[in-house]
Design goal:
There is one protein chain. With 288 residues, the protein is mainly α. Helices cover 75% and strands 0% of the residues. The protein contains 14 helices and no strands. Helix 5 crosses helix 10 and helix 8 crosses helix 10. The longest helix is centred in the first third of the chain and has 34 residues.
């Protein structure tokens, strides 16, 4: 009885200190495995970034010497600079259009329960379940019939196909706890549709809108597979240029251009997670 009484009155910190050794071993193993997965995911990018600083005239890892000359060469290369601007423009347009479509779709799914809602949600997410190469082949056939291959509009629509599901999902997460009676009350009090949406709904969906737009930007900026099927000689993106260049060139300028794309994507993620927090972006904050 004294032992039972002592266990019941022990502090939480004391109970944590008496966890079984087996449980501690499992916890340590899971933490170690998580770090291994992290290394597996990050190591290829670190290899490319490190190789871009080499002073040799070919890609080498570990790098020999240290130089920024390949970054200067990448910026001065007309093809790489032009395709970088094209990719940034496409990614920006994709982010704006995708978040508009995603916001409207997420509001429609969140506002009310209706028959077929789950089916519609699954349909919106279906581009993420289909292999991207299949989507690219489908885009090739579809845009060829419309005469939109190798056009800015065709490439943009292809990028939006994979970006819109992220926008819908992230805006939907931010609207999960939203009370739509507030929106209806604003309408009943005489607010117009635009005023009710901008002053009542948008503030609650702010984190999802910013996160969805950022992910749409990154998805478009890094997109390769669909771009390979929809671009040609008139429209080229930076990832496609890098992909086609590595087939016949081993110059570190390609590694430097790849490092620039990784850096832009990383800056976007750091900005969003730093300003909003990873828990707010993915909706974990509300589920605690």
């Amino acid at each position: 009885m004294p032992e039972i009484s002592h266990a019941m009155t022990a502090s939480p910190a004391g109970r944590r200190n008496r966890r079984p050794a087996g449980m501690l071993a499992v916890r340590a193993g899971l933490i170690g495995f998580s770090y291994l997965v992290l290394v597996f995911m990050v190591a290829p990018m670190l290899t490319v970034i490190a190789s871009s600083f080499t002073s040799t005239n070919f890609i080498r890892f570990p790098p020999v010497g240290f130089s920024f000359k390949w970054f200067v060469a990448a910026i001065q290369d007309e093809t790489l600079s032009y395709t970088l601007l094209v990719s940034l423009g496409l990614a920006t347009a994709c982010a704006v259009l995708s978040i508009i479509v995603g916001f409207l779709a997420a509001c429609g799914l969140s506002m009310s329960q209706f028959r077929g809602r789950e089916v519609l949600t699954t349909f919106f997410m279906s581009p993420l379940m289909v292999p991207v190469i299949v989507l690219g082949a489908a885009m090739l056939q579809f845009f060829a019939s419309l005469g939109m291959l190798d056009t800015v509009g065709g490439v943009l629509l292809g990028h939006m196909l994979v970006a819109v599901p992220y926008a819908i999902r992230l805006v939907g997460v931010s609207l999960d706890g939203f009370d739509w009676d507030l929106y209806r009350a604003a309408r009943n009090l005489g607010a117009s549709e635009i005023v009710a949406v901008t002053r009542v709904v948008l503030p609650s969906a702010y984190s999802g809108i910013v996160a969805g737009a950022t992910f749409a930007f990154i998805m478009s900026f890094d997109e390769v597979t669909i771009s390979l099927f929809t671009t040609g000689t008139k429209v080229q993106t930076l990832p496609v240029t890098i992909y086609r260049s590595v087939e016949y060139s081993y110059e570190p300028v390609i590694a430097a251009a790849s490092s620039i794309t990784v850096g832009i994507a990383a800056l976007a993620l750091i900005a969003i997670f730093g300003s909003l927090g990873i828990e707010r972006v993915f909706g974990a904050e509300e589920t605690r």
